[in-house]
Specification:
Helices cover 25% and strands 23% of the residues. The chain is of the alpha/beta class.
């Protein structure tokens, strides 16, 4: 957990202790930040010959929408202070947010093209072919599924794939559906569903497609629709954390995830506060493989 300073770290630790959270796996680091969306600025981990390597892509606040200088520096700052031990870090010039890509673990990318092939704000001068070459070199990707459609109202990211469609395994895609014809999301999500149906897996077979229900329209205090969805779940060791919002569709979404992940415990997490900030559960987290993070707490001067 990246905290602002020692007082903030103490506050976070105390809150977790009061909630009864086990602290054995807690690592508190201190670094300046702009926002909470660790998925988009955090390190992506790849393995080469069984050894992990951290890849730090450039983060520019979703195409310059928000200030992002501190968030863009977090991964390199923590690496320099030793929190990732001896795991090597490679910095990439390509602008890429972690929530913008989804992979099957076998070299296949699933992404919304406008989130990466953005000649105006993210990667000017780079074609889709150029970006595929970057991803092949940096992440080992070999197959590319580019979607053009799909969005959730209130999303600042230009519709990250992690809010819309996710790999449950190499042959199964879970996606955010919409069956309410009068909902403003219906046309775009229907077109996305047709795109997904046309994709083929690494064995040239159609994917098993599993739809998730769309929550009813949720609004903030100013009447702005919030980007509530269920595809932003988080897979962890032995469990899947499922975003819920205190609405009738929560139970159906949790049941659907249980069908998809029968060997995992499905843990609902209320994400009303998170979507007020325009993201949800997966967006606020980044998984780090076991053995990469070292020490218990990293202070501002780098002491473990």
């Amino acid at each position: 957990v990246v905290t602002a300073n020692a007082a903030h770290a103490a506050h976070v630790s105390a809150r977790l202790q009061r909630a009864g959270a086990p602290l054995t796996g807690l690592h508190l680091a201190q670094a300046p930040s702009n926002d909470i969306w660790a998925r988009d600025h955090g390190p992506l981990t790849v393995f080469e010959d069984g050894r992990p390597r951290l890849v730090d892509f450039r983060f520019n606040g979703w195409g310059g929408k928000f200030r992002a200088d501190a968030d863009n520096a977090i991964t390199a700052r923590l690496h320099a202070r030793g929190i990732f031990g001896h795991t090597p870090l490679v910095r990439e010039a390509l602008v890429l947010e972690g929530g913008a890509i989804e992979t099957d673990g076998h070299g296949t990318l699933l992404a919304r093209e406008p989130c990466l092939v953005d000649p105006q704000h993210r990667n000017p001068g780079l074609s889709r072919t150029d970006i595929e070459a970057h991803l092949r070199r940096a992440l080992g990707l070999q197959r590319y599924h580019w979607l053009q459609h799909g969005h959730l109202a209130g999303d600042d990211t230009d519709s990250h794939i992690d809010t819309l469609a996710r790999f449950a395994d190499a042959d199964t895609i879970v996606y955010q559906a919409c069956t309410r014809r009068r909902d403003s999301h219906y046309p775009a999500l229907q077109r996305m569903a047709h795109e997904l149906a046309a994709l083929r897996n690494r064995n040239d077979q159609p994917y098993r497609l599993v739809p998730l229900p769309l929550p009813p329209a949720l609004e903030d205090a100013h009447g702005r629709r919030l980007p509530a969805g269920y595809a932003n779940f988080l897979i962890i060791n032995g469990a899947v954390l499922a975003p819920v919002y205190g609405v009738d569709t929560d139970q159906e979404a949790v049941a659907r995830l249980h069908e998809i992940f029968p060997e995992h415990h499905i843990e609902p997490v209320n994400c009303r506060e998170l979507i007020n900030e325009n993201g949800s559960l997966h967006c606020a987290t980044m998984q780090i493989p076991a053995g990469v993070v070292v020490g218990k707490t990293v202070s501002a001067d780098g002491c473990l």
